[in-house]
Design a protein that fits this description.
With 295 residues, the chain is mainly alpha-helical. It is built from 16 helices and two strands. The two termini are 24 Å apart. It binds iron/sulfur cluster (3 copies). One iron/sulfur cluster binds next to helix 14 and helix 15.
Amino acid sequence: MAIKQFLNKYKIALITLGVFSMVGIVVMLFRDIRYFFLFFGIGLLDGTSRALIVHYPGLRQFFRLSLLVLVGGSLFVGICLLIGVNFQFIEVFFDLSAWVVTGALIQLIVARLILPFFAGNAFCSRACWNGIFFEFTNPKKNKKQYKKRSPLLAWGYLIVLVALGLGIGFFAPINPALDQETRMYWLFGENILIMGGGFFLTLSWGSRAYCRTLCPFLTISSLVAPYSLLKITPVASSNCNSCQACNAACPMYIDVMQDVQDRKRVRDPYCILCERCVSSCNKDVLKVAMKLPKE
Ligand code: SF4
Ligand code: SF4
Ligand code: SF4
């Protein structure tokens, strides 16, 4: 009985650890054992933060932001700056045109196409180093300058980046994927450009404006995210008093309240599972869960 209660209480934390471990084992088979430890470590940190939230739900955002800073910061310093692996989108196409596989392609496949079946776009709220920067700049939103994602703009931006990446990869004298010095110029240039550009978008359109409007990674993972096992779930819709605090807190401008009133889980493809809507609801209506509770 005690074991059943324990499993029930920490179900999501344990499944998180299990999923990351399995992904680590699969990637290790193609690469080397360091990848197992990388994914196992991220799973352990994510699982621990989810277990702590079970005990201290009032500190939900503190634990999530700590995880984001820890994982995103470690990836930025350890993998990007020290090893020189650029995770930015365009790098994937440098790699493909040179027939090499680096962390950029692995990150795209694992974080944007496989893990979203389990936890949607949670990479954005828990691991992206650009996300750290955008999360903490201009957290106030101005609804008058409301800017929601336009799929046309987002896909147009993605196509331009793909064309640029393949064009440089195939036709430039040096493919950055094959030359460490050129790769480092791209690494710093792209990160400065995205963070700087994102910062100005944020000043105009509020927190995470780049994520909300343009980011190509989110464009890709949004194809899978609606099928995610974990979603924001109304667990007590009848308690909702239509205060709209959840909508006001959402950095992606999702109409969470409408889903609550329709007794539906949040299937919006751009939900980043930041749980700000959960934290903002003082009626305990929302939760991250694997399914709707029985009536
Ligand atoms: S939307 Fe893009 S920039 Fe924003 S957190 Fe997600 S991956 Fe990072
Ligand atoms: S914050 Fe809670 S009570 Fe308020 S509208 Fe959202 S779900 Fe309903
Ligand atoms: S719906 Fe909730 S979890 Fe999803 S992005 Fe909005 S605030 Fe974050």
